[in-house]
Specification:
This protein has five helices and twelve strands. The protein is an alpha+beta fold. It folds into two domains: 7-67, no CATH class; 78-306, no CATH class. Strands 1, 7, 8, 9, 10, 11 and 12 form a seven-stranded antiparallel beta sheet that branches. Strands 2-4-5 form a three-stranded antiparallel beta sheet, with no helix packed on it. The protein has a two-stranded antiparallel ribbon with strand order 3-6. Helix 2 (33-41) packs antiparallel against helix 3.
Length: 313
């Protein structure tokens, strides 16, 4: 008899100290996670019990996140379009092409290596240099940049083999590497991969003038340019023209416009959007895929939307 009274007394004391143990049982499996947490929190508790509830709520949220089929963005880093604009402007100021007087191919008078400080932390591997040729004709220009061993000869263009499948059959020195990005190094940070995407495009545009320009007509976007306040006095070269209803979306409008870098175990994906009014007003998505640890990449460009008109040089 005494044992029964002791057990009963113990239960009464436990229920008095921790009231939520005496409450109606909560069917956790049948309720959404937030409702489960609210159900726990809505009951009268003492401080010790509130701590237990908070800890349980955190566990429930973690469980919900791990079970969700929606991809998380914990391994993605977003950068502002304004930062990209500043970097591009810094790079363009670093290069002075002067006023070329030659026609055809010639050694460039500008040093493409001077682009690198704008794209820190990227750098050129020890023992290598960047060399460039420029083609000029009637005020138009195109160029090509090669990565070479620092001690290799950099011959005049007429002494070089021609790359038949490249525009204007560009000259290629015998010691030049096929891909200039082979000699680029960085610190494996998300920004370094976005910087590599931008650097490669600047190098491809090196020496370009007038009709030879392409990448320089692209504006990297941080918001929907059809909804943005683009300001007065800006032209079709900087912002879209026409009403939003005059534009045709070829793909779904993205939720995230700013440049984004997604880092995974073995690869890195850089995604950004640009607007160009060259030839036809178009919004593009650029997707660059890297093998992690290397700054060479494969790229895909997709047209997202097209608008009325465009411009020509």
């Amino acid at each position: 008899m005494m044992k029964r009274l002791v057990v009963l007394l113990t239960l009464v004391i436990a229920m008095t100290c921790v009231p939520w143990l005496a409450a109606d049982p909560i069917d956790l499996a049948a309720k959404p996670v937030q409702d489960q947490i609210n159900s726990l929190g809505n009951q009268t508790t003492k401080p010790e019990s509130q701590m237990l509830i908070a800890q349980r709520g955190k566990r429930l949220r973690r469980s919900q996140d791990s079970d969700s089929s929606t991809p998380t963005t914990t391994n993605a880093t977003t950068f502002s379009a304004s930062k990209v604009k500043q970097v591009r402007e810094q790079a363009q100021k670093a290069i002075d092409l002067g006023q070329p007087t030659h026609n055809g191919w010639a050694k460039s008078g500008a040093d493409p290596t001077k682009l690198l400080p704008a794209f820190a932390p990227l750098r050129i591997k020890d023992g290598f240099v960047l060399r460039a040729y420029q083609y000029c004709q009637g005020g138009n220009g195109n160029g090509i940049v090669w990565a070479m061993p620092a001690n290799a000869e950099f011959p005049d263009p007429e002494k070089c083999p021609k790359v038949k499948d490249r525009f204007l059959e560009a000259p290629k020195p015998p010691a030049a590497l096929d891909d200039v990005m082979e000699v680029v190094q960085g610190d494996d940070s998300p920004w370094s991969y976005l910087a590599a995407s931008l650097l490669q495009r600047e190098l491809k545009e090196f020496g370009a003038m007038w009709h030879g320009t392409n990448w320089n007509t692209h504006r990297v976007l941080g918001e929907n340019p059809l909804k943005a306040d683009n300001g007065e006095g800006r032209t079709i070269m900087d912002r879209p023209s026409g009403k939003p209803e005059e534009w045709k979306w070829l793909e779904r409008s993205p939720r995230q416009w700013n440049p984004q870098v997604r880092v995974e175990k073995d690869r890195v994906t850089v995604t950004f959007y640009t607007y160009s009014g060259h030839q036809k007003q178009t919004i593009y998505r650029h997707t660059d895929t890297f093998k992690r640890g290397s700054y060479r990449f494969k790229t895909e460009r997709k047209e997202m939307a097209q608008g009325p008109g465009g411009f020509l040089f």
